[in-house]
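Reviewer 2 asked us to include a model.

Predict the structure of this chain.
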Amino acid sequence: MRPDFLATKAKSTVELYLCEKPSQGRDIARILGAHQRQEGYLQGDKVIVSWCIGHLLEMIPPDAYDPKYKRWSLSDLPIVPTQWKMSPKKSTSKQLTVLKKLLKSSHSVVIATDADREGETIAREVLDYFNYKGSTRRLWLSALDTVSIQRALTTIRPSKDTEPLYHSGLARGRADWLIGMNLTRAFTLLANDRQVRSVGRVQTPTLALIVHRDREIAHFKPVAFYEVFAYFKTLTGELLETKWQFLEQTEGDEQKRCLDKRIAQAVIDRCQSQTGLVTTAITLRKKQPPPLLYNLSGLQQEASRRWGYGAQEVLNLAQALYETHKLTSYPRSDSEYLPLSQFNDVSTILQALCANDPSLCNLIAQANKKQRSRVWNDKKISAHHAIIPTQATVSISRLNSKELNIYNLIRRRYIAQFFPDFEYDQSTIIVTIDVDQFKASGRIARVRGWKQAIESEVRQSGEGAQELPAVKKGETLYCDHLSLLDKLTTPPKHYTEGTLIKAMETIGSQVTDKVMKKILRETAGLGTQATRANIIQTLFQRNFIYQEKKVLRASELGIHLIDAVPNAIKDPLLTAQWEQQLDDIAQHKGQDIDGFLQQQISLLETIVSQVKSPKKQPSIKKGYKAGDACPECQHTLEIRHAVRGKRVGQDYIGCSHFPDCRFYLWP
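Predicted model (structure tokens):
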């Protein structure tokens, strides 16, 4: 380091606040009193506020490491940098030059980018690029209204607290580079039709979900099933509609549906004009607490369901509410809960909501501001809390119709927390004729509670259900008539952007494979709250999917790609495991960058080797094959897929009774 630089640093008393974008910088500068506008920054007394414009740096392409990579060739794969390098983005190089100058003259830096993995990476990659050696701290912002910024400025954190987020960001970026750069080249060269086959660590398994669903629907064969309804005459003359309960296991399916019409018809024949005994007649008062608050995925799913909004569109609208209007908190949150400390702001937030929209004042006047619902839970909070309204007082007339729709979802979910539980009576009646049981259920709303705040959810609650006729256990009812309904099973529905986001988010809870279930946490998903919308947009941009009447369909190009790539790249569960490992790096839970990247490199080497020398499925030594009995426990052997270790990506024979039996054989 140059002596003149050290001297400058030693004399400096200026602290640089490094933000993610200009608008964020202006908000923070206003509170810090940095009003003097300069080229690329704002200056105050011993403080400078400047900004990145998203990522100012990018990882260099393969040909920047070696010019020979300009020509795509299978023989050069896999390309694995020995030392990772970054280069300035041409479009924002001017701002990077501004930051270089400011870092030289600053005694310390406060990282003030978005409070997430991406924000941490955006700031720290600049500091690393210029080999910044001054002290650093971290400003952790959950909202950009005045009160939130002022509060955050009084609790600036040590930068070491959030450094693991940067390590996670580096690991993610490098893994994406390894998979994307190498396998895009490999499968484009294999296709040999001059059309680029883009492969991505997350985008390809997401595409596989859509392709698999399309094929499920295309190959679906409806199955006939039968339902019997019996109508009993009560003492008051009313008819009680009941449904026959199919209890046999031999002629039904997993949903306990009757698949044999003869069995259903026999019920009608033996029960017609018979009397039945009321064996169950109960009514229970049940309570339902207010729904949890919105995280980004929940917001995207609800907006997709109600208005058909795209995932990226919802993120943009939520970002505008946070960044432009200052009306809501940080949008890229994965939490549905709030810290206990946030309860102190309830009255102020509700007052602000009333000031912003007087039409809510009557509703807010009925709210119990002292009521603490289940959303206040410190144990459920990690980096961020749920998306909620802020204390900013801004007229909602500034919002366009779509912004208002999203804001309305967020604010009403918040208001609902201060209303009583929704209460309803759940009635169940069972009438028995010999061996046949007929059931009726009813649900009648008794206390609207929080549903006053969320009108749209009333329709989903079953409040409009008919109240069942009054009958008592032990009564005898005459079977007036029965009816037989012929029905067909229906295929699964095509994904919408909202249901795809849900599938990506909850992939860990859908695991049935015993090996993966042991490895994956229930919260494991594809991508993150911040990246899922962009992944879907990328699939659109690369013509792998298209939209048809609000549903997503895979294109021919997308289908061909999924058919070409190996399971290790398109398997959503394996990718979810990688995302889980990235989260462990971010949480400083033992996983490190080198170990994670070595898995990607091992996988690459295996796949590239297979691409270069395609071979038939190797036979398993000792003569065992899938379907044989396990020699140790006699359960069925099956082909399994290595999800970790040096042989990640390879197939092997393993016992289906894992983890109780651990017999396995490699090819």
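Residues 163-191 form the longest helix (29 residues). The first strand starts at residue 15 and ends at 19. We have added this to the supplementary material.
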